Amino acid sequence: xxxxxxxxxxxxxxxxxxxxxxxxxxxxxxxxxxxxxxxxxxxxxxxxxxxxxxxxxxxxxxxxxxxxxxxxxxxxxxxxxxxxxxxxxxxxxxxxxxxxxxxxxxxxxxxxxxxxxxxxxxxxxxxxxxxxxxxxxxxxxxxxxxxxxxxxxxxxxxxxxxxxxxxxxxxxxxxxxxxxxxxxxxxxxxxxxxxxxxxxxxxxxxxxxxxxxxxxxxxxxxxxxxxxxxxxxxxxxxxxxxxxxxxxxxxxxxxxxxxxxxxxxxxxxxxxxxxxxxxxxxxxxxxxxxxxxxxxxxxxxxxxxxxxxxxxxxxxxxxxxxxxxxxxxxxxx
Length: 333
Ligand code: TRP
What we know:
The protein folds into two domains: about 210 residues, HUPs (Rossmann fold, 3-Layer(aba) Sandwich), CATH 3.40.50; about 90 residues, Tyrosyl-Transfer RNA Synthetase (Orthogonal Bundle), CATH 1.10.240. Helices cover about 55% and strands about 10% of the residues. The protein contains 13 helices and five strands. Strand 1, helix 1 and strand 2 form a beta-alpha-beta unit. The mean pLDDT is about 95.
């Protein structure tokens, strides 16, 4: 980056409602990085259209995702917050990187295999080359670190391979990024089937706590969480439900598992579940309030999007020009 500051890049899709898993594993930590890194956080609308989207929904969710970034504590003056399609360099570099990515590599991506099974009627080329666009996102900013959930680690590794391959032919082009997987909150499980990851697209509404759920809903969902036939709050093998609730409680309170076990010694699961609901609702209520205020001010959000896109486009263009020159594209006079 310009002044030797390390660069952090991440993206969130404007599809579906984000869960406490997304909050704890990603969004909540994003604001902490802006001290140490120059951060770019992108709303990846181009990735979203690899599966069919309702246009009005996509537009609404793009605003909502940007608002959520800010509501989760990202200061738009300290971070570059923007929308992917506002910066055409993403799609342009993606084409070039397509020519440096192997068919076989893309065929091995587990997300592609999952998504093509789930959307068997629409296995389009974009779904297949999704990781190439993601590599473009990352490499345009000469990114050092990419905070992602474990499910995206494979894509970041592919990005590294593509960057190294390109650098082999054209030395010194791209910084090779590292994935950064958040230590805690990396795996929040479903409240209904605690052996399964909590997923924003789960059909059972009681399985998932959304960042924007209201207080009563949050408390009710935790009250219904599946536990086990034991009665003691302790972290142990075979207690997936309790382990998950303890993980969530630990994430929101900063307490260790031992501290939690001591706190709930002699108390039942009912008390514990109520406490998990309370701490979660306490943490998320200010986010929801701020989110509501932001969405009511569309002009503010539009202005932030524009500012972010201008900042991003400037950096992205420099990398893209360098790449085009190296490849032998004739600069436009
Ligand atoms: N693929 C990521 C996801 O679905 C979103 C994403 C797109 C991303 N581009 C990125 C994440 C670049 C990190 C860096 O979660």
